[in-house]
Amino acid sequence: MDKVRIEKAVREILLAIGEDPEREGLVDTPRRIANMYEEIFSGLGEAPEKHLEIFFQKERYEELVLVKDIPFYSTCEHHLVPFVGKAHVAYIPKNGKLTGLSKLARVVETVSRRPQLQERLTATVADTIFNALEPYGVIVVVEAEHMCMTMRGVKKPGAMTVTSAIRGIFATDQKARAEVMSMINSGK
Question: Which residues are listed for Zn(2+) binding in this entry (predicted)?
């Protein structure tokens, strides 16, 4: 990450909007934004599959695993403003290939720390898990509020966008898909 270049660019943006980058409240803003970008875009150089080491190769558990309400934030690539929400990740392990529950949350976190679309985030999380663990199936559902719709444009705070990615058995087995969706929606 080229933080010096980010600082110069932020200074230029401040000038372009008519602000004084030397004003007391703004003098350190370019540095703070460069540091923030390093953090919120840390997923750019990271492969999410690295988190999916398999802990149990011989475990005979081949039933549904669901981690729901995983909080995340990401950045809309169209406006560079945040979208925030929660992800629900479910998979059915095959051949004893289980991973740690926190690893599923780490995949969501890694993928979300990039400028992108919610649709891409959802599909990338599903594909990463499906390819790394080779389970019977994966479902990822992401619910998020986009600040580009809240703060500007249509100005509709509270509007939620829901996306899903369905892989493997869940694509063909309606009963299995309905079970997962029921569990995701329980308690709402």
Answer: 76, 79, 148
Four-way CATH pick for 50-185: 3.20.20.450, 3.40.50.1100, 3.30.1130.10, 3.90.79.10: 3.30.1130.10
Q: Is 88 a catalytic residue?
A: no
Pairing mode of beta strands 65-76, 82-92 = antiparallel
Q: Is 78 annotated as catalytic?
A: yes
Residues 6+ apart with CB under 8 A from 166: 126, 137, 138, 139, 177
pTM for this prediction: 0.94
Ordered by start, the domain boundaries in the chain are 3-41, 50-185
pLDDT in tens, 155-184: 999 999 999 999 999 999 999 999 999 999
CATH number of 3-41: 1.10.286.10
Binding site per annotation, positions: 76, 79, 148
User: Which one from 49, 62, 148, 179 is the annotated catalytic residue?
Assistant: 148
Alpha-helical (H) ranges within 72-188 are 101-112, 118-133, 147-150, 169-172, 174-185
Give the active site residue among 12, 53, 59, 78.
78
pLDDT digits (tens, 9 = 90+) for 100-133: 999 999 999 999 999 999 999 999 999 999 999 9
